């Protein structure tokens, strides 16, 4: 097969898209798998919220279920995940970045920040899970660090070093993929930490 | 306009569908409105989970956002609502019935029962909101009553009288439409009730 320049270019750009999608799905899949594991061993009850879809038109083909023929993804009003752990309400957003230097706030909606702040006000546990894909490192960071930085008009991002300093690196294993509840234990359930 | 018999029949059946849909949506809308009110006055942080959609095919029209052109409603893996109230995790399912005699368990999936049981095991608050539309009465009933009845192989439903006896009638008002958190206060936050 002859590699025409145009053909080659198309292939390359497709590969990039696929890779970036896989990367985009990578963290979500790791967390979903971890949550399934945590549920199966009765450690926690945490689910990904479904992506909201604005359904515009539905067909009802004979003898089969309703078929959505026009719909659009809506911006989620809250965060990716919530649930119940050790009797406490848990809520978090998961994000990946390809940057080596920082996690930019362009990646996060203002109402998501507001929601995380509300969770804390109502006595829940709120945090972010941020993966720096180029370092292959995933951090759990309490929402307050991100809320404070986000509200500081001069800041448009949080530096990698700051995430490393204020957050906790999540250990990875076969099951669960991301042992993030061990971090939650240390951060929120130590007698001298948050006073729960 | 002449009312041809066939035309009339179509109209009638459409009206019934519309009414039953409105009734189907009635409780959900009332709860959603109540939750919006409760959020706005900072009393609680409770949301309806989006209905999960299995997206099969997406088009990307030029210069506009992704358009779902083939999708199907999936069975939700959990319940309709969850959130945070007075520092506690809250989870519930809302159901309407047109029966005057009972609420049939056909209306509820086994994995929803399992989920409500798991919520209780993990220290959360789990209940159902059941509306008997023909009485125009809406009850909040702790999940344990439904779980017990559901697990009893001989029972295929829970009688209206039993719901009335074990549940609490929810008062209605202009805002919030359903004052269900007052019931939650009485049922779960009294010192001598659940030991929270
Ligand atoms: Mg996310
Ligand atoms: Mg329902």
UniProtKB/TrEMBL annotation, chains A, B:
Gene3D superfamilies: 3.40.1350.10. Its EC number is 3.1.21.10. Residues 1-28 are annotated as: Disordered. The lineage of its organism: Bacteria, Bacillati, Bacillota, Erysipelotrichia, Erysipelotrichales. The record marks 95 as: Transition state stabilizer. Residues 1-10 have a biased composition (Basic residues). Residues 11-23 have a biased composition (Polar residues). Its cofactor is Mg(2+). Mg(2+) binds at residues 78, 80, 93, 112. Signal peptide: none annotated. Its main location: cytoplasm. It comes from the Bacteria. Keywords: Cytoplasm, DNA damage, DNA recombination, DNA repair, Endonuclease, Hydrolase, Magnesium, Metal-binding, Nuclease. Binds 1 Mg(2+) ion per subunit. It catalyses: Endonucleolytic cleavage at a junction such as a reciprocal single-stranded crossover between two homologous DNA duplexes (Holliday junction). It is an enzyme of class 3 (hydrolase). Endonuclease that resolves Holliday junction intermediates in genetic recombination. Cleaves mobile four-strand junctions by introducing symmetrical nicks in paired strands. Promotes annealing of linear ssDNA with homologous dsDNA. Required for DNA repair, homologous recombination and chromosome segregation. This is Holliday junction resolvase RecU. SUPFAM superfamilies: Restriction endonuclease-like.
């Amino acid at each position: 097969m002859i590699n025409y320049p145009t053909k080659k270019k198309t292939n390359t750009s497709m590969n990039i898209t696929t890779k970036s999608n896989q990367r985009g799905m990578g963290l979500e899949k790791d967390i979903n798998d971890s949550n399934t594991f945590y549920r199966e061993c009765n450690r926690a009850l945490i689910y990904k919220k479904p992506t909201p879809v604005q359904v515009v038109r539905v067909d009802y083909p004979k003898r089969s279920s309703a078929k959505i023929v026009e719909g659009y993804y809506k911006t989620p009003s809250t965060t990716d995940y919530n649930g119940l752990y050790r009797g406490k309400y848990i809520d978090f957003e998961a994000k990946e970045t390809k940057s080596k230097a920082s996690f930019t706030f362009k990646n996060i909606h203002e109402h998501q920040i507001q929601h995380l702040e509300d969770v804390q006000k109502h006595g829940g546990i709120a945090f972010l899970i941020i993966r720096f894909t180029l370092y292959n490192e995933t951090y759990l960071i309490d929402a307050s660090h991100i809320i404070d930085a986000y509200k500081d008009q001069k800041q448009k991002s949080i530096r990698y070093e700051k995430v490393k300093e204020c957050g906790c690196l999540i250990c990875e294993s076969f099951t669960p993929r991301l042992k993030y509840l061990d971090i939650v234990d240390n951060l929120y359930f130590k007698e001298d930490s948050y006073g729960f």
